[in-house]
Amino acid sequence: MASAVRKEVNTSICTGIHDRMSAVERAGLLRLLEERDADGTTQYNRLKKSAQSPTWSHFKRLITHLDWVDRLGDTGVWMDGVASRKVTDFAGEADAADASELKAYAPVKRVALMACLARKARMPERTLIGICARTAYWVEWWRRFGPPSGNDPKLADPFGRYVLTTFVKGTNMGPYEAARHIPGVSGHELAYTANRHFSLVLLNEAIADLVNAHARLDISQAWGDGTAVAADGTHMDTYLDNLLAETSVRYGKPGGIAYHHISDTYIALFTHFIPCGVWEAVYIIEGLLKNSSEVKPTTVHADTQGQSLPVFSLAHLLGFDLMPRIRNWKGLTFYRPSKTTWVGFGNQGSSPTTTPSSRRRR
């Protein structure tokens, strides 16, 4: 009964997609099964274009590919009223079939499946676990993990186990909850891997590998050169019995602060969880010192939490520029580095003969 209802619903959806397309658009899609590219494959395979590394050359080819997909027709009109999950299911069925297999389908269903694949080709879905597996394959950050002895892991598939553990811990799902949804692995296996093969030091080494690989991408270099970072914290809810949890005056609720250094190449160089009552400027220098990647920022932008007289002094000594948003200008003290330095403020100015220890308020 259920299969009959499902078949009837799918048939009506395919018919609706088919009818919303013009005869020219349907003929254009069907030609993809016959016409071949220079490499001998049908143009239908071009709709299955897989993800490539984010370089300028691949980005330009992706724009050309998107223009080609758009010329097939307005997929938004074709999919009007169709649930996104159905579009994904039909596109997956079309992606799994080659041109010869698709020709065996009924004409209405064949056109509908190809239309759904064209729709997904404009913005294919990328899953978090797929991204983890892809980056682990190319960057090989998973090789950083292993038993404390330093020996090779005695796991049947260390690559898959480390990727799954990273995904489970990164999403805060928990090993036993994840095992209920991921076939072929138990909660004990995931928990054992996380407890015996992962550590904070190894995680930081893997993060440094990812940051270095990200910095070498063409698109990342177009965003920035890695010399500047933005420092800021975000309030996070926690359990009340957590050692770091306390009531935040700024946010009016208990929790902690997730403090980050975000590079101008749009990747986190440093992440630390701190109590709500701590002035964030204290962790600016710690973030720079603990950054083990090849990206070495020289300028730190922050909000008013980054304003601190001791950190300003240490920033000058350590050779980086601290540029926070300043509050309460009128109550601040400005210092001259020497007798001969003259500093002007608008129409007013301090005399060059003022002693170095003098202070001027504004």
TrEMBL record:
A Pfam entry, by short name: DDE_Tnp_Tn3
GO BP annotations, alphabetical order: DNA transposition
Domain Tn3 transposase DDE: 134-341
GO molecular function: transposase activity
Domain of life assignment: Bacteria
InterPro entries named among the record's database cross-references: Tn3_Tnp_DDE_dom
Protein name according to UniProt: Tn3 transposase DDE domain-containing protein
